[in-house]
Write a structure and sequence with these properties.
This protein is α+β, with helices and mostly antiparallel strands. The protein has three helices and eight strands, in the order βαβββαβαβββ. Strands 2-3-4-1-5-8-7-6 form an eight-stranded mixed β-sheet.
Length: 134
């Protein structure tokens, strides 16, 4: 794992949250994107060398909808950048970590993604992110 790629924050209203975080950071988001496979709308902010991803559920069965129903708005996950997501999944599985996604899938912001189950990471949802090379 190279670095923290972004921190994901679950929100009920992405428009209100975009306004709030734009005020906090002193600049607007740089991208809004729907990820249909996950049932979310995302919005990305850069804050220095770091990124924040806001996530709003687009349907009631979305993992974000379930998260907010259970825990309320707040930090949802920490994403780490990796060079080779498939080898990282294999390494982590061999180390005994439980994966939610055993194969990477397309995520937001031009990334391949896979999540580790929080039951194997002390309750923290961890996302692996690899840039999609075109």
């Amino acid at each position: 794992m190279k670095k923290i790629e972004h921190i994901g924050i679950a929100v009920k209203d992405i428009d209100a949250s975009n306004y709030l975080f734009a005020s906090l950071f002193g600049k607007e988001h740089y991208k809004i994107e729907d990820v249909e496979s996950e049932g979310v709308k995302t919005s990305f902010f850069e804050c220095g060398p770091n990124k924040i991803e806001l996530l709003q559920a687009t349907n009631e069965n979305s993992p974000i909808a379930k998260f907010i129903e259970k825990k309320g708005e707040g930090i949802h996950h920490i994403a780490f950048a990796v060079d080779d997501i498939e080898s990282e999944i294999a390494r982590l599985t061999e180390e005994g970590f439980k994966m939610i996604h055993e194969k990477p899938k397309k995520g937001a912001d031009n990334k391949l993604i896979a999540f580790l189950h929080p039951k194997s990471t002390n309750g923290v949802l961890i996302e692996l992110c690899q840039d999609i090379k075109e």
